[in-house]
Amino acid sequence: MNGRPALVGLPYDASSSFLRGAARGPTHVRDALFSPAGNGWSELMVDVLSPPQGLEDLGDLDLPPDDRARDRIEAAIGSLVADDRRFIALGGDHSVTYPILRSLSRRAGPITILQIDAHPDLYDTFDGERHSHACPFARIMEEGLAARLVQVGIRAMSGPQIEQVRRFHVEQFPMRAWADGARPSLVGDVYVSIDLDGLDPSCAPGVSHPEPGGLTVRDVLGLLHTLTGRLIGADIVELNPARDPSGVTAGVAAKFVKELTAGFLVDGA
After folding, report:
1. Would you tell me how many other CB atoms lie within 10 Å of the CB of residue 183?
2. pLDDT digit string (tens) for 86-128?
């Protein structure tokens, strides 16, 4: 996977609980990413937005607000992977990660998922829905789409999800362990899934399910900059622009896009 990295928007939030709004996330991240207030250079001193090697914005998929969206996401990501391209997907709610991994797992070797999140998203069903944004990692693990699931930032667990952690042998680094210095070790092909509510609301208020006591922006950047293994793809999900009037959360997401892209380019070089 050494082709030009791609950015693709997944404007879908029909699987959200509590609040809708994440479908408008990709537009707001792009506004921050390409704003004249900043530039296209990452902290790794890579110009990540300039052609011919920089990130190519492929726009948004046309996604209906129903189950057909999963098939369209799976097909679109499958085309990118078939063309040997790594990618960053902009959600949308976290349910989009499941069809992404269905495509990616067919072409990659054993995948390690690094999930940054306040919630495990491991419910078998939520409000009677197996494809809720509270369930994608249960679907991923029961289908064997990843060899390892490593979760960082967890601080809103429940009894049913604890059972799922045990069932799927999930490796968790909850915030209490993170605060004590625990850090993951990642090898092989790594896919990064960033739910913006994994950050503390003081850093990223524009989410539907804010949970105090989370990661800082620098915590997440540190993880991205020190990733071992081979970064093969990523998603950034759950920005709710209705809760982000200042645009600070969109700016954080755009920052992560740049640093993830730098990871692709440095690895490719």
Report:
1. 12
2. 999 999 999 999 999 999 998 878 999 999 999 999 999 999 9
